[in-house]
TrEMBL record:
It comes from Stylophora pistillata (Smooth cauliflower coral). Belongs to the GTP-binding SRP family. SRP54 subfamily. The lineage of its organism: Eukaryota, Metazoa, Cnidaria, Anthozoa, Hexacorallia. This is Lysine--tRNA ligase. The keyword Metal-binding applies. Homodimer.
């Protein structure tokens, strides 16, 4: 008798007996449950009700039983007693199998997998190996150091000065001390203080944080091991590093050779030593050893390496090595003797005063470790810190801070010391062996197909079908192996692909459109997507089959269903038939068919009601409709995410209606749809269509062979070509071809190409159709708005620039690259503010401080205020949120404003509007001190603005001015029309545009909702600024070619096709106006982000007391 416990990962119910699989930290075990064994008495409810109906995949159970072997030789436990230990309230993700037979969980979103690592660990056994491997590596390093008597220590994570590396820190605030603190970027300086204090060797496994970019090899939070040993130098450290890594490889992998991707890497000592300047000469042909900054910039230009004015000699050499040399060093190699400008904490080289005694260990084309002979001369150290300060003033936000206390420590004397930092995350990847498979044996085939079968079952394919499928594949694979010289892996993939296609129907089945009119009847449960599919099918038949379609609403129980069908019909330009006051769906259907005949509609699509489950009323109703209209095609619509219950539902519908085909909706990936495969096998009816997204054109004819290719990661080139052909305009293509031949291909042509690609559908689905790309993009989310930045830049060009790109010089490029997207410009402004804040902090000056008052709990107001608080944190400001109750009196609110007015810590503050009705907003705004009114609403600031005196400008108009200036848009002498007369945007905008400034000197016309003949003014305007709050008010026929358009309005409009239920529209019809405009701001993402950015800029100006 054995006792086991674990999480139930799969289950196969077979009447009185069932199999299940449980999993714990040590592995998996199959268990066999016989009803009469666990329920020996007459009461069988524990098996029939609890085990079969109440237990779910993911539940943690305990079992007692005896061990036996099944007929196929699998060790299993025959259960005598079963107990529920813990209930899983959330369903586990479904798993899938790739072409190699490896199981992967359905967590395709990489961010979600990392956020919910506990789920990832449950469904993906390989993830657990990462944790185990990492522990082996750190244990091996600790043991190596401890054997040598080195001391493990801990150093501060929160630091008053972020030192030890050239990196941009994360900034936080200590409320009790009211001082800024920084998350540790390196633990180097604290460890070296311990060497000063008398320890001979110290090490630490530390979490470091760097507020820089992110990619596959750089994470803002990472683990590093740093070691410092007294009376040693960097040459000794190279030998010690070779011993350490050889030991780690043996301890964690059993040998010194590992395979990473396609590369075999050997950690056996010794490793080559290559000076960095020699490496650059070898791989670029340039000798940079004697070059100054100007010479290095010239080399970078010749090598097409981008630079900027903040880069000094060290950064330029680092860029050259990183771009042109680093990737060549696959085997462990020490890159040594770095220039002094690159190594501010390193001892000067004993043979060359321009160099330092430093090395980086490169493995697989990436830096794995960084080590020095440590600088212990306090005078030299102080000079290098000061040179770093010069770089910071030049704009380098990664330059080191001056740590006066560390210099003081060195003045007490630090012995000659060598130090090294090893990235644990990179070391883990470097020793992780990814072994490929050799020739497949019968055993390997059986093992692989067992995983395939599990994946199919987990994807809700019926157990018998999955078993039959894998047995057929195994039989064919072993039988053909003798007859062919193909590689076994290729052969197995081909057989799996062919059998999978056969399992799903073999070939595509077309829709039957016989009849006059052809009647298509929808059936299925509530929530399966019948109404949306009805709209998609109508669009498909109109566009692809040239049919005249009538949509019919027969769901009389859900008024929203009729509304949805009406909206969908409007979107696709189809006719719709509704009888809102008729509660008899049968008569509605008959009337609709008669209406179609009378109005020359040759296709009728009937959307019927669904239920949460099959019931007698539903089945009788759908049967009566079927009998009344005699459809030429009846579809059973099923949600791709549904479980095996869908099979039973399908059988019930089929027995009653004998439907003609299955429609699979919500197929957002190839990991789902197992239930539909089972439906195909059980009812022997083809899958005819699949819905692949929210848009009305996200509908595909189901091709079993193509779907099999996509499931196996082999792409679907045929469907990709078909989608391209749908958007192909032969005449336009010939014109483009001629322009290419004459070297006249312009950005208008390029923009048109982008728009055609976008019309082809969801970008991730398109990538999945490219052979090999699906596997590469696994876990990668592709934003459907990915092209927007490129489109924005093209639309930032003048028509002349689009037609003739050769005229785009440096100043034009600067304007264009800022795009019309306010997000990018706002981000640039925030970066500029951040640099100024860091400069203030480095010089010991006070951090800018913004306060916000919010009264009550208005959701929109709170969202806006929270965005401002987050923006403050992002740029390094201090911020205070004053939350006051809804019932606060006006007197109490004014007292709080007076308190902020006199608080010297607060540089500026805002009062979030709207305020409760019992409070006078005008009096409140008047109470804000003008010198702290960073919203720019106080009459003093408004008056100063009108008189062209220094003042806080309202944030939105200020943002528009900034956009115009950064786009390099000329306004002097231009005709500007401002539509809207609010005190916040319209009126101040009209004043500012007429003033004598670099953005201004324009002839301004202010219009509003009561103005007549608006088109007369907008037609002649060079610049139109719209802040009216009316969606799509400004249309293409109201503006001239080359106009500049600034869209301030934003309105929420209901849209049932969106997950949110709404979409955001601006005051400008972007799609049509953008074709005529030289510049246009989008909504959202245009003016909106600029408002918060300029509020921050006002606060910074308040800090500098410019008034």
């Amino acid at each position: 008798m054995v006792v086991l416990s674990g999480r139930m990962m799969s289950r196969r119910l077979m009447g009185k007996a069932s199999f299940a699989e449980i999993k714990d930290a040590s592995g998996r075990m199959q268990i066999y449950i016989n009803r009469d064994e666990i329920c020996p008495e007459e009461d069988k409810n524990f098996y029939n009700e609890v085990f079969k109906k109440l237990l779910d995949i993911g539940d943690i159970i305990g079992v007692e039983g005896t061990v036996f072997k099944t007929k196929v030789g699998e060790i299993s436990v025959s259960v005598k007693k079963l107990s529920l230990l813990s209930k899983s309230l959330r369903p586990l993700p479904v798993v899938k199998t790739d072409a190699d037979g490896n199981i992967h969980d359905a967590f395709s979103d990489a961010e979600l997998r990392y956020r919910q690592r506990y789920v990832d660990l449950i469904v993906n056994d390989d993830v657990k190996d990462t944790f185990i491997k990492r522990t082996k590596i750190t244990n091996s390093i600790r043991q190596f150091f401890n054997e040598r008597g080195y001391l493990e220590v801990e150093t501060p994570i929160l630091q008053p000065i972020p030192g030890g590396a050239a990196a941009r820190p994360f900034v936080t605030h200590h409320n009790a001390l009211n001082i800024p603190l920084y998350l540790r970027i390196a633990n180097e300086l604290y460890l070296k203080r311990l060497i000063v204090g008398g320890f001979d060797a110290v090490y630490e496994f530390a979490k470091d944080f760097r507020n820089e970019g992110m990619d596959k090899t750089h994470n803002p939070e990472f683990t590093v091991m740093e070691l410092y040993v007294a009376y040693k130098d960097y040459r000794w450290m190279m030998g010690m590093t070779e011993q350490l890594l050889e030991r780690v490889a043996v301890d964690s992998k059993g040998g010194t050779e590992v395979t990473v991707g396609d590369e075999k890497i050997n950690f056996k000592a010794p490793y080559p030593r290559v000076p960095i300047l020699e490496a650059i000469k070898i791989h670029t042909g340039f000798d940079v050893s004697e070059m100054d900054e100007i010479g290095l910039r010239g080399v970078c230009d010749k090598l097409n390496i981008p630079t900027d004015e903040t880069m000094g000699i060290g950064k330029l050499i680092d860029e050259i090595f990183g771009e042109k040399c680093e990737h060549h060093y696959i085997q462990p190699t020490f890159i040594t003797d770095y220039p002094k400008e690159m190594s501010p904490l390193t001892k000067t080289h004993r043979d060359n005063p321009r160099l330092t005694e430093r090395f980086e260990l490169m493995v697989n084309g990436k830096e794995l470790a960084n080590a020095y002979s440590e600088l212990n001369d306090p005078i030299d150290q102080k000079e290098r810190f000061q040179s770093q300060l010069a770089l910071a003033e030049k704009g380098d936000d990664e330059a080191m801070f001056i740590d006066a206390d560390f210099i003081r420590a060195l003045e007490y004397g630090m012995p000659p010391t060598s130090g090294i930092g090893i990235g644990i995350d990179r070391l883990e990847k470097a020793v992780h062996s990814l072994k490929g498979k050799g020739r497949i044996t019968e055993t390997n085939i059986a093992d692989t197909l067992k995983q395939v079968r599990r994946a199919l079952i987990a994807a809700d394919v019926n157990f018998k079908i999955a078993k039959q499928f894998t047995e057929t594949v195994k039989e064919k694979a072993i039988g053909q192996k003798v007859l062919t010289s193909l590689q076994p892996g290729q052969l197995l993939i081909k057989i799996v692909r062919d059998e999978l296609a056969n399992l799903m129907g073999g070939s595509a089945a077309d829709v039957n459109l016989d009849g006059s009119p052809a009647v298509i009847l929808m059936s299925g449960l509530q929530g399966s997507g019948k109404t949306t599919f009805s709209g998609k099918l109508a669009k498909y038949l109109q566009d692809k089959k040239n049919r005249s379609v009538l949509l019919v609403g027969c769901d009389v129980y859900r008024p929203a269903a009729l509304d949805q069908l009406e909206v969908l019909a409007q979107q696709i330009g189809a006719s719709v038939y509704l009888e809102r006051n008729n509660q008899d769906p049968v008569s509605i259907a008959k009337n609709a068919v008669a209406y179609a005949k009378k109005n020359q509609k040759n296709t009728v699509i009937i959307d019927t009601a669904g239920r949460l489950a099959v019931d007698e009323v539903l089945m009788k109703e759908i049967a009566n409709i079927h009998k009344a209209v005699t459809p030429s095609e009846t579809f059973f619509v099923v949600d791709a995410m549904t479980g095996q219950d869908a099979v039973n539902t399908a059988k019930a519908f089929h027995d009653l209606l004998n439907f003609d085909g299955v429609v699979l909706t919500k197929l957002d990936g190839d990991t789902r749809g197992g239930a539909a495969i089972s439906i195909k096998s059980v009812v022997n009816k083809p899958i005819k269509f699949v819905g692949t997204g929210e848009k009305m054109d996200a509908l595909d004819v189901f091709h079993p062979d193509r779907m099999a290719d996509r499931i196996l990661g082999m792409g679907d080139v045929v469907s990709l070509v078909e989608k391209a052909q749908e958007q192909y305009d032969e005449q336009q293509a010939k014109k483009v071809q001629k322009r290419i031949a004459k070297n006249q291909f312009g950005f208008d042509d390029f923009l048109q190409q982008i728009q055609q690609i976008k019309k082809m559908g969801n970008l991730k689905d398109l990538m999945g159709m490219i052979p090999g790309a699906g596997k590469m993009m696994k876990g990668v989310e592709i934003d459907d708005d990915a092209f927007k930045g490129v489109e924005a830049m093209i639309q930032s060009m003048t028509p002349k620039e689009r037609r003739n790109p050769k005229i785009i010089n440096a100043s034009r490029k600067k304007r264009i690259t800022q795009g019309s997207d306010g997000k990018k410009t706002a981000a640039t402004i925030k970066q500029e503010i951040t640099k100024e804040v860091l400069s203030l902090k480095k010089n010991g000056q006070k951090t800018p401080h913004l306060a916000a008052i919010i009264v009550g709990d208005n959701g929109a107001s709170r969202t806006y205020v929270n965005a401002k608080v987050k923006a403050c944190e992002a740029v390094g400001f201090d911020s205070t949120l004053v939350e006051l109750p809804l019932e606060i009196s006006q007197k109490q609110l004014l007292e709080k404003i007076t308190e902020l007015n006199t608080d010297k810590k607060i540089d500026g503050f805002i009062v979030q509007l709207p305020l409760p009705k019992h409070i006078d907003e005008q009096e409140v705004l008047m109470a804000v001190a003008p010198e702290k009114d960073v919203d720019g609403f106080h009459p003093v600031n408004v008056g100063k603005m009108a008189l062209e005196l220094p003042a806080f400008l309202p944030a939105t108009p200020y943002g528009i001015l900034e956009l115009l200036e950064r786009y390099d848009i000329s306004t002097a002498g231009k005709e500007v029309v401002v539509i809207g007369r609010s005190h916040i945007v319209g009126r101040p905008m009209s004043i500012l545009m007429s003033q004598k400034h670099s953005v201004g000197n324009a002839t301004v016309t202010l219009l509003h909702s009561r103005s007549e003949h608006i088109q007369h003014f907008t037609k002649r305007a060079d610049i139109v600024i719209v802040a009216l709050g009316k969606p799509h008010f400004l249309t293409a026929d109201m503006v001239k070619e080359g106009v500049v358009v600034v869209d301030v309005g934003i309105t929420r409009v209901d849209d049932p096709s969106k997950k949110s239920g709404f979409k955001l529209l601006g005051d400008v019809d972007y799609e049509t106006v953008s074709k005529k405009a030289s510049h246009i701001t989008p909504v959202p993402g245009g003016v909106g982000p600029m408002t918060i950015a300029m509020l921050l800029k006002n606060t910074l100006r308040a800090r500098k007391t410019f008034l």
